[in-house]
Amino acid sequence: MSDPIIYVLDFDGVICESVKETAITGWNAASSIWGDMPRTVPQEKIEQFRLVRPIIETGYEAILTMRLLYLEETIEAIYNNYSEKFKVLIDDANLTVGGLKQLFGDTRDAWIKNDANDWINMNPLYDGIVAKLKALGQHCPWYIVTTKHERFVKLILHANGIELAEDQLYGLDRNMSKTEAIKELLKSHPGETLYFVEDRLPTLLNIIRNGEIPDVKLIFASWGYNRPGDKELAKQYDVTVQNLETFLAPFMA
């Protein structure tokens, strides 16, 4: 580790185990759009959402996913054609992606205002991750690149004793793709090796297939939100596969 390096980390599924909170927020937001849905999410729908979570790239999609689950769409059916199913829901209810993003953030804000501790408790960090991040910070710069609103990331990390500088966090507020954020970080760290840690395999494969940032070292976080078979597929593309135990282990010595 003598060569200069930087780490870029996804948040949900790499640092934070947020699936239950995302499911509840998605249901609450959906029930404000579609009045036939109960105000309280059934536990079985949370468990079903856990199985569908790997397809979700941005939080607002949880609203649409929970609607589909309420309508008794099967897990397989959602996986097979979720883009079209999302489009139909959006069009039929005269929704917009921008409006759904706003609603999802507003629903979280309302929960936090009502009971911030409860919301934070629904967003636990993975075991040992706090120590790992603190050790990483002693050795090299690190950043978070996420599709989550920055205020939510900061709140969760602050509750766990981790403070981020403004330039360490690239969230939904910046209106940048993860690829664009990584490119910007490479420009500000010329000559340094960038490691990108992500639990969503399609995101990593897009980087490989587009070929826009070929020098980035890609790490697949197998402990996060991914599908059966993703681990083996990642290996076929020469993506480094890590489990939570080995993640950042060299920095803990």
Automatic annotation (TrEMBL):
<dbReference type="GO" id="GO:0006281">
    <property type="term" value="P:DNA repair"/>
</dbReference>
<dbReference type="InterPro" id="IPR050155">
    <property type="entry name" value="HAD-like_hydrolase_sf"/>
</dbReference>
<protein>
    <recommendedName>
        <fullName>HAD family hydrolase</fullName>
    </recommendedName>
</protein>
<dbReference type="InterPro" id="IPR036412">
    <property type="entry name" value="HAD-like_sf"/>
</dbReference>
<dbReference type="InterPro" id="IPR023198">
    <property type="entry name" value="PGP-like_dom2"/>
</dbReference>
<dbReference type="GO" id="GO:0005829">
    <property type="term" value="C:cytosol"/>
</dbReference>
<dbReference type="InterPro" id="IPR023214">
    <property type="entry name" value="HAD_sf"/>
</dbReference>
<dbReference type="GO" id="GO:0008967">
    <property type="term" value="F:phosphoglycolate phosphatase activity"/>
</dbReference>
